[in-house]
């Protein structure tokens, strides 16, 4: 292997950080040998903290209504061909019930920015889930809300919040979103969530339109500085009814390489092998874990709505991606030396 790349990876593993120029050199010089070496070091870092446990989260996609118009997203407001749905509270509670029986101890409520899921409705929902499943964590992923709203949900018992920063470069942010959405607002929300005591997740799409290597380094430096408990990254995949329909999808190799880097940047981070990664490669989930990821998020939504939460084309929602197939998932993970844990899978602070 190129000795410069090896020493950059060693330095990253030792210091859990690199300078901007060093990240750039690592990303531009990367090759297969460097990737394998990076993944080895990333797995060692992960195993030192979390052993061979992989945590699972039951993903409940509660609504595909969205007031926003992000250029990349299939459920954007302007996509009039999307078949809209929203789950009722009793349906969401039934998902949790099934999920609990299958061993899930974290429920992730994700959706578009849908006014129906108001501060009070979500507060009631969190209380109802916690009343039935006091030993479970509730993660929210409902976009940008006011600090007061985040605070009410936290008071009601929500433990974690996922809100990808999407890109840490303001100019790039503006090329992915319409006016009215800004990086400043996004970062304000992330800061609020952190101050309110949530375990917070940020993240970005790999290979999103107009993304440069410099932008990726901005993302890595931001992640290091913000120090979230979770980071969600996955390849951008085009959706045919969006302005980015003709843009190329993000690459598998680059996504895996970035997972390895992020594990070494923040060794304790909870890092999912995402659905988007599993969509672009049938072994994407396993490859993500072998690159340093330690979380999987099977779909717990009712089967009849899964095909409607289409953020991008060909999104998978069956097989090992489906919560009811967790035995298949468990077997796949065992085949690569890992174990699906029945646990909340909280961030290990020390
Ligand atoms: N509305 C909430 C929010 O914005 O955080 C949660 C749902 S949003 C659809 C979840 C994530 O999906 C976004 O943060 C984005 O990174 C990802 N996403 C949307 N469109 C995508 C695409 N075409 N390819 C890959 N990921 C996409």
What does this structure look like?
The mean pLDDT is 97. This protein has one domain: Aldolase class I (TIM Barrel, Alpha-Beta Barrel). 48% of the residues are buried. A six-stranded parallel β-sheet has the order 2-3-4-5-6-7. Strands 8-1-9 form a three-stranded parallel β-sheet, covered by helices on one side. The protein starts with a helix and ends in a 9-residue tail after the last strand. It is globular and about 60 Å long. Helix 1 packs parallel to helix 3. It is α/β, with parallel strands linked by helices. Strand 4, helix 6 and strand 5 (160-162) form a beta-alpha-beta unit. Helices cover 44% and strands 12% of the residues. It is built from 14 helices and nine strands. S-adenosylmethionine (SAM) binds at residues 72-73, 110, 112-113, 141, 143, 163-164, 166, 205, 234, 236-237, 239, 276, 311-312.
Number of domains: 1
Radius of gyration over alpha carbons?
19 Å
- For CATH, the homologous superfamily is named as Aldolase class I
CATH top level label: Alpha Beta
Oligomer classification: single chain
Helix proportion of residues, in percent?
Answer: 40-55%
Q: Distance N terminus to C terminus?
A: 34 Å
Q: Report the strand count.
A: 9
């Amino acid at each position: 292997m190129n000795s410069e790349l090896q020493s950059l990876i060693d330095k990253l593993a030792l210091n859990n950080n690199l300078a901007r120029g060093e990240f750039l050199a690592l990303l531009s010089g990367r090759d297969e040998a460097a990737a394998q070496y990076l993944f080895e070091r990333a797995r060692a870092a992960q195993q030192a903290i979390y052993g061979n446990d992989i945590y699972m989260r039951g993903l409940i996609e509660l609504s595909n209504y969205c007031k926003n118009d992000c250029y990349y997203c299939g459920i954007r407001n302007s996509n009039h061909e999307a078949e809209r749905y929203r789950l009722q509270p009793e349906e969401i509670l039934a998902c949790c019930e099934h999920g609990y029986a299958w061993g899930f101890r974290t429920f992730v409520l994700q959706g578009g920015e849908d006014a129906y899921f108001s501060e009070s409705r979500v507060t009631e929902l969190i209380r109802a889930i916690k009343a039935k499943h006091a030993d479970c964590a509730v993660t929210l992923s409902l976009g940008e809300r006011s600090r007061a709203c985040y605070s009410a949900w936290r008071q009601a018992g929500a433990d974690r919040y996922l809100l990808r920063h999407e890109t840490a470069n303001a100019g790039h942010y503006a090329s992915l979103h319409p006016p009215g959405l800004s990086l400043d607002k996004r970062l304000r929300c992330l800061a609020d969530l952190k101050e309110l005591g949530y375990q917070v997740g940020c993240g970005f799409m790999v290979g999103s339109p107009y993304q440069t290597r410099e932008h990726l380094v901005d993302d890595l430096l931001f992640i290091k500085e913000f120090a979230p408990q979770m980071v969600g990254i996955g390849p951008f995949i085009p959706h045919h009814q969006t302005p980015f329909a003709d843009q190329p999808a993000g690459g598998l190799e680059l996504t895996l390489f970035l997972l390895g880097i992020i594990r070494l940047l923040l060794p304790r981070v909870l890092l999912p092998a995402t659905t988007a990664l599993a969509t672009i490669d049938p072994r994407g989930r396993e490859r993500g874990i072998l690159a340093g990821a330690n979380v999987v998020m099977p779909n717990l939504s009712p089967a009849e709505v899964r095909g409607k939460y289409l953020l991008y084309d060909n999104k998978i929602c069956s097989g090992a991606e489906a919560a009811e197939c967790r035995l298949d998932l468990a077997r796949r993970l065992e085949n690569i030396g890992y174990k699906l844990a029945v646990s909340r899978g909280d961030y290990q602070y020390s």
